[in-house]
Amino acid sequence: MIDTHCHLDASRFDQDRSEVLARAWAAGLHGILVPGVGPENWEPLREMSRGEPRLQIGLGIHPQMLPHLPPEEDEVHLERLDALLGLGGAIAVGECGLDGPSAAGAPMERQVAVLRRHLELARKHGLPVLMHCFRAHPALIELLKHEPLPEAGILMHSYGGGVDLARFYIQKGCHFSFAGPVTWAEARKPLDALRVIPPERLMVETDAPDQAPTPHRGQRSEPGYLPRIIEGMARVLGEPVEVLAQRTTENARRFFREAFPTPSL
What we know:
With 265 residues, this protein is α/β, with parallel strands linked by helices. It is 40% helix and 14% strand. It has a single domain (2-256), classed as Alpha-Beta Barrel (TIM Barrel).
């Protein structure tokens, strides 16, 4: 199993990060992708992944970070991101995207401009994009109608939109990852969307430390909870857990170009 989105560098893991990882490996995970969210954590992430091939990273600017960054420095940060991506070590661009609630501090026009540059960098460096979109799907759809998509693809992280939105993203060639909310009792839209997504485009994540699955909802999430999410998805799809776990793992390996090591038998 591969957790395609886990903020392992979050401060909520500072006290027991090694134990969290030990539990993840014991739960059967073979890899964890840690997305970068802003310039301050790019170098620490690069250091975190050195020497541990099961930990891979993405580098990007999360839209929720933009209100805390001076807009006049956007291009400076993006040029630095370009340089770091050129050094290798990152297997994806992101987390990046659009965030409706953040528009008060970072207008959607600015968010779109920064995201467009992330897409340019993904095309330049031949990397997939880890896409965040929360309450901003109309703006993202408009952008993707006109912007060339990276050949390496887009992964819709923690997808929570409905079926109609999913069909647009499917038509554009996007892949989808689901997190803890698919196990929540009131979940509806993501479950409906899950049923229409092509099997070869499906992945799984924890988004830890957020969005913990049932029965851990309301607590800190961690990568070792990934099997719970796969179990929830399997119930919705009517598939054996082992089959879905294998498929989502194979999909992640293929999407990220075999960046994660194959476990020894």
